[in-house]
Amino acid sequence: MKVDGRHFRSIWLEDDGWTVGAIDQRRLPHEFVVARIASAADATEAIHSMLVRGAPLIGATAAYGMALAMRTDASDAALDRAYAMLLAARPTAINLKWALDEMARLLRPLPASERVAAAYQRASEIAEEDVAINQGIGRHGLALIEQIAATKQPGEPINILTHCNAGWLATVDWGTATAPIYLAHDSGLKVHVWVDETRPRNQGASLTAWELGHHGVPHTVISDNTGGHLMQHRMVDLAIVGTDRVAANGDVCNKIGTYLKALAAHDNGVPFYVALPSPTIDFSIDDGIRQIPIEQRSTEEVATMTGRTADGRVETVRVVPDGSPVANYAFDVTPARLVTGLITERGLLRPERAALASAFPERGAGH
């Protein structure tokens, strides 16, 4: 996608052939900064600190982290250390483990002398595969938007609600939930996006709004509790969200607050779709609510907010009283019964084991 007319991906291999560049998403929307990742430790910190975030991008970053580790030391012991360090960076998004398993499966049988080149090649392939997956999601999701457009009066917009950032910043390019939106906009359909702010880190207000704005997609930022009201007043045609992990039974884990949007959508007859890249499926889990680990992040993310002052300074301020306890659950799980459908690179699926296993037999093998 483009930033001020120039094409960017969220992560890339630099011209030197070994370091990795990534957009520092902690600095958006007020500053556009490119970070340099030069070691497995750098990649781990980038994932942990949310310099990079979004399940697909976390996976791509982890793959490059393994390549950087092999460049420093291609031994079995170093491979094991890098795998463990990167895996511990964040617990909820399954793409992280998927990418690390892909790298380890490739590298372990190889002699040390061949591991560096193979690691960089596979990391690059994982990044390219993510782009292709998102384009597939975009095509299948576009068909849904076109169906709604056919029911509209001339000039009437298709109103889409999304939560958190499942845009190109959360992937390598295109995004998951936003890919259909970008394709619809680029094809001339009149779309408008309701952008949930997504407290506590404000990924909607800071990231989704930023990227939609740069692409020229009409949008409106709303507080997290506005979606239900909009649905009651028939101001939302469909909701499309991303996901960090989907259980074999179709339960969907996504940014905290997604479950409440799904409940409101169900109550008001609003279609609720989840954009699902196949590496996000976890066939080892049968009950998302009970089995998916929910990350609890720093209480400071809730207790403070960062913004730009009138004179242009970026500052962080405290918004809760000193001494008040704070909890910060980063994700919640939406039961499959509340999900209208899963938009995947292989088509629109029902949120159930049989449909997932049939569409992705290579992922479900052994589970």
Automatic annotation (TrEMBL):
InterPro entries assigned: IF-2B-related, IF-M1Pi, IF_2B-like_C, Initiation_fac_2B_a/b/d, M1Pi_N, NagB/RpiA_transferase-like
UniProt-annotated catalytic positions: D244
Residue sites binding substrate per the record: R53, G54, A55, R90, Q203, N254, K255
Site (Transition state stabilizer): C164
UniProt-recorded Gene Ontology molecular function terms: S-methyl-5-thioribose-1-phosphate isomerase activity
SUPFAM superfamilies to which the protein is assigned, alphabetical: NagB/RpiA/CoA transferase-like (SSF100950)
Domain of life: Bacteria
Keywords recorded for this protein, A-Z: Amino-acid biosynthesis, Cytoplasm, Isomerase, Methionine biosynthesis
Pathway entry: Amino-acid biosynthesis; L-methionine biosynthesis via salvage pathway; L-methionine from S-methyl-5-thio-alpha-D-ribose 1-phosphate: step 1/6
Catalytic activity: 5-(methylsulfanyl)-alpha-D-ribose 1-phosphate = 5-(methylsulfanyl)-D-ribulose 1-phosphate
One Pfam family cited in the UniProt record for this chain: IF-2B
Similarity remark: Belongs to the EIF-2B alpha/beta/delta subunits family. MtnA subfamily.
Function recorded in the entry: Catalyzes the interconversion of methylthioribose-1-phosphate (MTR-1-P) into methylthioribulose-1-phosphate (MTRu-1-P).
Stated name of the protein: Methylthioribose-1-phosphate isomerase
Gene source species: Bradyrhizobium icense
Encoding gene, per UniProt annotation: mtnA
